[in-house]
Amino acid sequence: MKIIIAGAGAVGTHLARLMSRDHEDCTLVDEDAERLEGLDSEYDIMTMEGSPTSIKTLKEAGAEDADIFVAVTPDESRNMTSCIMAHAIGAKKTVARIDNYEYLSPKMGSFFRNIGIDSLIYPEVLAAIDINNGLKMSWVRQRWDVHGGALVMLGIKLRATCEILNRPLRELCGPDDPYHIVAVKREGETIIPGGNDELRLNDLAYFMTTKEYIPYIRKIVGKEQYADVKNVIIMGGGKTSVRAALTAPKYLDIKIIETDEHRCEQLNELLSDTDTMVIHGDGRNISLLMEEGIKHTQAFVALTSNAETNILACLTAKRLGVRKTIAMVENLDYVDMAEELDIGTIINKKTIAASHIYQMMLDAKVSNLRSLMMVDADVAEFTAEEGSPVTKKPVKSLGLPFGVAIGGLVRNDVGMLVNGNSQIEAGDTVMIFCHEQKMNKMEKFFKAASIW
């Protein structure tokens, strides 16, 4: 597959890294030579200095026979223009990063396809979805719904109250048990566990279960004392905060604290149809937090543009008694530090956007692909095609690559867990967990093939 990425910012470079690990024919284009410096040697890609809205640059980059052209510069107009031009030259599929929510209206889809833009990506909207999923459960670090919630993956930090520590998983996760452990993060290492592995104190464990067993999971991990989230304080009034507030469950009482007075006025207009309260002030000010009821707040969300500020603010909120904290950490260098400090849920809208685009590049029927930064892994929903290899043998005989786990499947809208004797059928939606970048190796299992 030939791929051209316009824009060597955080989204573009992360996407290039994903392409590099799959050894795809990838060219990264940017006007700034400094942004491109060293990327061609660090990743297995080509780099080109030039404007993505230049026909000459697009032709030199190979847009005429590109399978997919992705424009993720900071400028929405340039992204859309370059996609239109690349399509006119011959690119088979185009994706543009945008920052105008109106463009995502389903009614606009055919319009954009007609002018040469196949897909639109709004990173702040994708981040808001993850934030609100995180707010649904105060005791969960990460929640991922498969097929509309028929299956659920829960990332949970295990404390001393957990009932299932220090016991072999073969005693806990048998064929008839209502959950599987698909991955464990322990002291910086990711483990795809087997029957002899055990869960230990302070592990970050990823549980796969069905919705009706979520209360049971909450009990065995010792999280019943965590109060459900009702009151939320968000620090920072940027686009992600707006999208999160507009799409949050109605039962949440949300306050946004913003330092810029003019932006506060804008927020009041943008959020006029909600019950969100906008407060002018500094979310790091303990006196202000106390005044706004931090002691009775179940979740604190730090969404400023500064990763250090967000991390420190979450630490302060935890010290003041908030159980659930979410931090926007755009600088990937700070992700490990945030994890070591036990911040809670970490959001990086650029990696979320890159994962969403990466999903479009896989040949198999893949949906809802996400990168889990905490465990350096990808999780995605694959649909088994008629006659595909995955439908021809039980799971234990498929010969799946090391580092791959099947968490469960959805058949006729009913979620079910998978064991070695399970037989996947055509049309099943299967949750695949891949550690160490093996998602592209799973495509062949789910695509129709005449020879197994």
UniProtKB/TrEMBL annotation:
The lineage of its organism: Bacteria, Pseudomonadati, Bacteroidota, Bacteroidia, Bacteroidales. The gene is trkA. Residues 1-121, 229-347 form the RCK N-terminal domain. Residues 141-223, 367-448 form the RCK C-terminal domain. GO terms for molecular function: potassium ion transmembrane transporter activity. InterPro entries: K_uptake_TrkA (IPR006036), NAD(P)-bd_dom_sf (IPR036291), RCK_C (IPR006037), RCK_C_sf (IPR036721), RCK_N (IPR003148), Trk_Ktr_HKT_K-transport (IPR050721). PANTHER family: POTASSIUM CHANNEL PROTEIN 2-RELATED-RELATED, TRK SYSTEM POTASSIUM UPTAKE PROTEIN TRKA. It comes from the Bacteria. One of its GO terms (cellular component) is plasma membrane. SUPFAM superfamilies: NAD(P)-binding Rossmann-fold domains (SSF51735), TrkA C-terminal domain-like (SSF116726). The keyword Transmembrane does not apply. Signal peptide: none annotated. This is Trk system potassium uptake protein TrkA. It comes from Marseilla massiliensis.
